[in-house]
Amino acid sequence: MSNIITIGYVTEGTTDKRFLEAIIRKTFEEIAFGCPSLIEVYDPIHIDMCLGDTYVAQVEATASEAYSKGISVLCIHVDSDSAKDINVMKNKILPAFNNVENIQDQRLCKNLVALIPMQMSEAWMLADKNLFKEEVGTNLSDEDLGINKKPELFADPKGVIEEALRRAQIQLPRRRNKILISDIYQPIGQKLSLQSLSLVPSFVRFREGVKQAYVKLNFLH
Question: Regarding the domain delimited by 3-121+193-216, which CATH topology (the fold level of the hierarchy) does it fall under?
Answer without folding.
Answer: Rossmann fold (3.40.50)
